[in-house]
Description:
Layout: E1 2-7, H1 15-20, H2 28-48, E2 52-55, H3 71-81, E3 86-93, H4 99-112, E4 120-123, H5 128-135, H6 148-167, E5 173-174, E6 179-180, H7 193-199, E7 226-230, H8 234-242, E8 246-249, H9 254-270, E9 281-289, H10 293-310, H11 337-347, E10 350-353, H12 355-366, E11 376-381, H13 391-410
Amino acid sequence: MKTLLMSTAAIPVTAEERARSRPVARDVDLYQNMLANYQYTAELADRLGFDGFGSTEHHLQTEGGESMPNPLMVYAKLAAATSQLKFMPMSVVVTARDPIRVAEDIALFTHLFPGRLAGVQFARGYQTRWMQTLTQSENVAALNPASDQDNRARFNDYLSVIEKAWAQDSFSHHGAFYQAPYPVDGIRDWPLADWTRRYGGPGEVDGDGTVRRIGVVPKPLQQPKIFIPNTFSAQTAIDSALHGRTLVIAAGNREQARATAELYRDTARSAGHELRLGENVGMLIKLAFGDTYQEAFDYAARTYGYWYQNFFQKFGFTEVFRTPADDPNRPFDLGDERALTQRMIESGQLLCGTADQVSEQLTDISRVYADGALQWLIYETWGQALPSSEGREIHQYQLCTYATDVMPALR
C-alpha cells in the first residue's frame, strides 16, 4: 500500500490572529510563512519516504482556510527542492477551467519533472463563491440541487476532452459543454493549411483548408493516472470504475467505505476489468498520534476537529458522520470540535492513539474492511496549520511517527 500525504495550505494563525489580521490570506508575510511551512512539509515527506504529496485547489479564501489556487505551480518548486517525492494535485477542479489548458499544463509538468507526477485528482467543485465567479455562471457548482446534474455532465464532458488530448495525436470532440475544434464542424480558411497537412497530426486539416481536428502539445511523457474523489455519490464510483480511474473514498463509516469499494470492483468487473477489492482504490484517512491516547486525541481535536467543525461542516461534509440517533430534521452538528472528533473516531475515518494503536486500526483499512488490499492510503493532515510556535515540532512528530513506526509494515 502506498501513502500519499495530503497537506493543507491553511494560514497558520490562531482564531484571534485570524480576526485581528483579517483577511489573513492577503497578508503577504503570513502567506509567505504558510508557503515556507508547506515546503518544509514536502521536504520532510521526501526524506521520510512518503510515496506522494498533494493539496487541494481553492480560490478566493481570504479567511485563510484552503489558500492554494494553483498546486501544480507550487509543485514545480517543490519538485526541484526534493529528490524522489511524487506530486498530485488534489484536485484540479476542471469544471472551472478550460480542459485543454489543463491537459497542456499537466503534460508539461511530466516533461519538466519526469517520473514525479503521482497522478491527477479531478473534482467537480462545490464552493459557490469561487465556482460561480470563475465560471461566470450561477448554475455550475456540485452538491447544489439547482446545478449538481449539469455540473456532473460538464465534468464528464471536460474530462473526456483531457483524456483524448493526452492519448490521441489529433482528435475532435462534440460535447454538450465543449467542442474541439470550435465550432466542431470546422474552422475554415486556415492560413497554414498546407503546412499543417504536411507536418501536423492526421486529419487536422482537410483538402479545403478547414480545421477538422486538433492536437494538444505536449503529449505527456508518462500517461497521468486519474484519481476521482468520492464522498457521497454511488454514480461517481460507477463512472470511475467504467473508465478505469482510481477512486479515492472519503466515506463516513466503515460499512460505507467497504460498500463503495465493492461497488467499484463489481462495476469494473462487469466492464471486463478483473480487479481485486481495493485495487485502483485509495482511502482518505485522518491520523493522530501521541505517546498516550489522550495526547493523540487532543492533537486531533485541535486540527481535524477544529477545521471540520468550523469550516467543512458548513458545506455539509460532516453529514457522513450522522447516525440513526441524530435528529434527521436538523443539520448535523454535535456542538463542538471535541464531540465531532470523537464521532470521527467512532466512524473509522479518524485513527487516533499511539503508533501501535493506530497500526492495529490501519490493518482493517489496508484490507478494505474485508479481504481486499488497498492500493493508496491518503493521509490527510492539518498539522501544518497549527498556529503555535511549537506547531512545526508537533507536525514533525506526527509525520515521523507514521513514517518510522507505521508505514514500513504497510508496504
